[in-house]
Amino acid sequence: MIERNRQVRNIWCMARIFLVYITTRDEAEAEKIGEALVLEHLAACANVIPKIKSIYNWNGSLQRDSESLLLLKVKESKLDELIKRAKELHSYELPCIVSYLSGPSNPDYVEWVLNS
User: Fold this and answer.
1) What is the pLDDT of residue 19?
2) Kind of pairing between the strands at 97-101 and 17-24
3) pLDDT classification of 14: cutoffs 50, 70, 90
4) Among candidates 92, 93, 98, 78, which has minimal Cα distance to 37?
5) What is the separation of C-alpha 108 from the centre of its chain, rounded to a whole number of angstroms?
6) β-strands 61-75, 17-24: how paired?
7) Domain definitions of the chain by residue range
8) Are 54 and 23 contacting, i.e. CB atoms less than 8 angstroms apart?
């Protein structure tokens, strides 16, 4: 058990996983994109937050929209391909696709993401 924990922690120390934040026009689009990216093995997991409010400037005017949020977990080696594919699947002219490097995490979960 001690050796297993050491191996998992070594994987965690070397691994880089990312959270990818994508806003979508609605819940159906978030689910469609998330499902495709998981089925294509570009993301380990997709979470859909059905309703968020977004406020932003677009073409010189203030916009207020209801959107949905798609949050993905991905290993670093798949990140560029995931971003490219998400842009292909997205309905927006300029989709918000932003990645964040995760910090200290559950090593068992990190291992699962890396193996997904």
Assistant:
1) 98
2) antiparallel
3) low
4) 78
5) 19
6) antiparallel
7) 18-115
8) yes
Structure tokens at 89: 């699947």
* Residue 16 banded pLDDT, cuts 50, 70, 90: confident
Q: What average pLDDT does the segment 58-74 reach?
A: 96
DSSP output for 44-88: SEEEEEEEEEEEEEETTEEEEEEEEEEEEEEEGGGHHHHHHHHHH
18-115: CATH, from 1.20.1260.10, 3.30.70.120, 3.40.50.1000, 3.30.420.40: 3.30.70.120
The pTM (predicted TM-score) of the whole model is 0.86
Contacts of residue 82, Cβ cutoff 8 Å, sequence gap at least 6: 20, 37, 42, 43, 72, 74
* Gyration radius of the chain's alpha carbons: 16
